[in-house]
Amino acid sequence: MHERSGVEVRLRQAATLPDMLAASFDAFEVIRFLARGNEDRVPGLFAAFMTAADAAVDGREAVTAAPSLPSGGGGGTGGLPVAPDADVGEIADDMAALAVLLGERLGYAATLSTIPDDQAACEDAAQAAWRICQLMARGHDDTRLR
């Protein structure tokens, strides 16, 4: 997925806390969009996708509480087109991979920040990212979402 890759690049290349926060805001939006766009495709996964969307909102809101977030939030995610025939399992894998990266980068940012409110925001957002990962990760020996 092109947009997800762009957000991943921004997360990996963010050299400052404001850049990391802006990229994280957008990454949570990508996850929210993907979760909401696929929640009805497989009835048995409705709850997992809805809960992941809620966790993405929690992460995005945690990021917005950070004093170092640039005004205006993230840089925008565009339209994020998803092919109607895209495999739901692959979409879940993409969401999980992005959530892992988010959790790692935000956890690292929390250790570097000297502003307590930024530290708390990064820690809270990282926790939301890990919740998304747990919801969307597949077991190593099966293909079902947890």
Number of helical regions: 5
Strand content: under 5%
Order of helices and strands: HHHHH
Instruction: Estimate percent helicity.
Output: 55-70%
Distance between the termini: 22 Å
Query: SS-based structural class?
Result: mainly alpha
Backbone shape: elongated
Number of beta-strand segments:
0
Low-confidence stretches: 140-146
Largest sheet: none
Mean pLDDT: 87
Question: What's the Cα radius of gyration?
Answer: 15 Å
List keywords for this structure.
146 residues; mainly alpha; 5 helices; disordered C terminus
Summarize this entry quickly.
The protein is mostly helical and 146 residues long. Helix content is 68%, strand content 0%.
Write the layout of secondary structure elements.
Blueprint (H helix, E strand, L loop, with lengths): L1 H12 L3 H22 L7 H19 L23 H25 L3 H21 L10
Overview of this protein structure:
The protein is mostly helical and 146 residues long. The protein has five helices and no strands. Helix 1 packs antiparallel against helix 2, helix 1 (2-13) packs parallel to helix 4 (88-112) and helix 2 runs antiparallel to helix 4. The chain is elongated and about 45 Å long. It starts with a helix and ends in a 10-residue tail after the last helix.
